[in-house]
């Protein structure tokens, strides 16, 4: 049995893994969900930095013990790359940086986005609902995605410009490419995935934990963005 530490992307909370957890358990593994990385919060005054995010993940790994698989989605992969020398890693539609590169470096000359924007508070706020829906979950019904967005917060702007130390990895890495992604272009994912030991492709938009699990639900009530660090499922 492995312990799977699940790390969400920017703006999100641990609730995004809620319906993934039973599938992990059915396969005989123990899921541990990071409820909230410090870089995301409901209030801009409460956001932390990249180092704070890494510290939370390191603490979760320490508590999890051995036989750990670390799973990171989107921005969460920037965080788990900092501890890539520790467990086996799964990247899901993720930013996988080499040493010295930030998330913004990885984006490079990509066209400007309309679904989030910087504020005077030093955070990145989400844009209007339709732009967010198109970017990250176009394959999820609008009604199902609305409560998900309602539970998202703001994201520290500084986390996107912090370079990765990317220590050498000594364990296997899997990259899950989402072929319908509009947040991280599939061709960019293909380039990053070249360094992986195994590559899986899903016919999904940016958030397969939404489109492949939640999409068929009649309602998706979720708790608000929480301030806890991690919780065993």
Structure in words:
The protein is α/β, with parallel strands linked by helices and 233 residues long. It has a single domain (3-232), classed as Rossmann fold, CATH 3.40.50. Helix content is 27%, strand content 20%. The protein has eight helices and eleven strands. The strands form two sheets. It has a seven-stranded mixed β-sheet with strand order 10-9-5-4-1-2-11. Strand 6 and strand 7 (123-126) form a beta hairpin. The longest helix is centred in the N-terminal third of the chain and has 15 residues, at 50-64. The radius of gyration is 16 Å and the shape is globular.
Major sheet:
7 strands, mixed
Give the strand tally: 11
Name the beta content range: 15-25%
Structural class, by secondary structure, is: alpha/beta
Using the CA coordinates, give the radius of gyration: 16 Å
The low-confidence parts are 215-233
Please give the CATH class. Alpha Beta
Helix content: 25-40%
How many H/I helices?
8
Give the CATH H-level superfamily: Alpha/Beta hydrolase fold, catalytic domain
| Assembly of the depicted chains | single chain
